[in-house]
Amino acid sequence: MSVSNEFLNKYNVSGPRYTSYPPANFFNNTFSVADYIDELEASNGQVPKDISIYIHIPFCPLRCHFCGCSTVIAQKKSVVCRYIDAMKSEISNVSSHLDLQRRVTQIHWGGGTPNSIEMSFIRDIMDHIRGIFTISEKAEIAMECSPAYLEFSDIDQLAEMGFNRMSLGIQDFREDVLKAVNRMGPKYPVKDIVNYLRTKGFRGINLDFIYGLPLQSPESFTETLKQAIEIRPDRIVTFSYAHVPWVKKAQKQLEKIGLPTPEDKMEMLVNSIAQLEEAGYISIGIDHFVLPDDDLAIAFQQKKLHRNFQGYCTLETTGQVYGFGASSIGQFFGAYAQNLKDFPKYIEAVEQTGYAIERGYKLSRDEQIIRSVVNSIMCNGILEFEEIAGQFQLTPQDIKKLTGFNPSKFEDFILDDLMVLEGDTIRIRDKGFMFARNIAMALDPAYNQEENIYSKTV
Ligand SMILES: C[S@@+](CC[C@H](N)C(=O)[O-])C[C@H]1O[C@@H](n2cnc3c(N)ncnc32)[C@H](O)[C@@H]1O
Ligand code: SF4
């Protein structure tokens, strides 16, 4: 796939990222704990029937100034302990509404920096989960880690607890870039960490990078990715730096140092796609690159790729997602439910009421159908109206009506060779994957281009 600057500029419009459908800005505060309990009970009979668990650890020893995640700076052990206890109690309360014959096929720990808390806390939660749920032998058990705080003995313990996937936040290999963004570099060479993870049976090992940070240039980012390719992780993610200083105040610090120009940022994107594909990585969506034998590459080829708030996964591993901890999001067939973001409020709410729901969203049947359409385009680059119609006992014509399908909306994409329209099938071409979001927007009746609340597509 080669992507030209011209296309990137042409299709670089504001739009949802479709991490969920409808996007999180639709969530509202009228969604109550009683609604949540209804949805938990309904989720027992929904498809996919397996259980995914998300655990959010908000703590980080140091705040990286670019960070857009839900984090708080390191807390005393007693506070972390109270947080872990609240989470255990939340897990017990939520699970009392669930059919526990269902298997857990995915456990994802995100943050914050889950590996910055003591391993005994992680073990405590994992033991609690194992004491309640039935975990599938093939379950994916993953953690997002910062290599600044990761010891080899931690890896031993995580492997022993059943973890088999890890994502390491690298961001950049250059020390001056890391210093400029107030981030600690890896404690040990990343190559040694990745090799050690492999000996411990970890698969799908991922390295995260960000382009668009201060002091980066197209040349320096190429060098960083060259080092990443030499390490040969299964997955490489290159995030475009999302600069939202009105939400994340610390990001203002980066403006003082100076950010790369939009042209440089675009060049980093174009170069990185070419560089990673040349090195044998397969591009999945906008920013994910995977080795051909990785589960995600295989799922992508078999059109079985799926996405939830935790990232890409396969249809085999994903289930209804039950989120635990501050800011975590439950994702069910019929609704989304998000916990309080502020962690002391989260603890208080769980201690007092057993739950900590702040907002959520119930999907109408039409929205459930459109979500299937959007997911099919975003994850697998294909939309077969007949197939979606079959899922909902409708006709292809019904789906077209619901999505406001009109061939004229796709003329540009077809002329630019980004997709083909063959009968009742939309098929995205290799070089069109970067613009899957734009194609999904053309099928999303709720998308309103006037409402400029979203980040740019690229
Ligand atoms: C929860 S962190 C990963 C684990 C750990 N906290 C770390 O930083 O190594 C998730 C990822 O989000 C990405 N990220 C954070 N802030 C971002 C931003 N403003 N724009 C783009 N990506 C961002 C980083 O690549 C980071 O690795
Ligand atoms: S990027 Fe990771 S380590 Fe840095 S503040 Fe955000 S969550 Fe914490």
Please tell me about this protein's structure.
The chain has helices at residues 5-10, 33-43, 77-95, 119-132, 152-160, 175-180, 190-199, 218-231, 252-257, 262-278, 295-301, 343-353, 365-380, 385-391, 396-402, 411-415, 436-441, and strands spanning 51-57, 59-60, 72-73, 103-111, 134-145, 165-171, 203-211, 235-240, 282-284, 288-290, 305-308, 311-314, 320-324, 329-331, 335-339, 357-362, 382-384, 419-422, 425-428. It has 17 helices and 19 strands. It is α/β, with parallel strands linked by helices. The chain has a nine-stranded mixed sheet, with helices on both faces. Strands 14-15-16 form a three-stranded antiparallel sheet, with helices on one face. Strands 17-19-18 form a three-stranded antiparallel sheet. α3 (77-95) runs parallel beside α4 (119-132). The model has no long low-confidence stretch (mean pLDDT 93). It folds into two domains: 1-22 and 365-448, Arc Repressor Mutant, subunit A (Orthogonal Bundle), CATH 1.10.10.920; 24-329, TIM Barrel. The structure holds S-adenosylmethionine (SAM) and iron/sulfur cluster (SF4).
Write the layout of secondary structure elements.
Blueprint: H1 5-10, H2 33-43, E1 51-57, E2 59-60, E3 72-73, H3 77-95, E4 103-111, H4 119-132, E5 134-145, H5 152-160, E6 165-171, H6 175-180, H7 190-199, E7 203-211, H8 218-231, E8 235-240, H9 252-257, H10 262-278, E9 282-284, E10 288-290, H11 295-301, E11 305-308, E12 311-314, E13 320-324, E14 329-331, E15 335-339, H12 343-353, E16 357-362, H13 365-380, E17 382-384, H14 385-391, H15 396-402, H16 411-415, E18 419-422, E19 425-428, H17 436-441
Parallel strand pairs: 1-4, 1-13, 2-3, 4-5, 5-6, 6-7, 7-8
Antiparallel strand pairs: 8-10, 9-10, 11-12, 14-15, 15-16, 17-19, 18-19
Bound molecules: S-adenosylmethionine and iron/sulfur cluster.
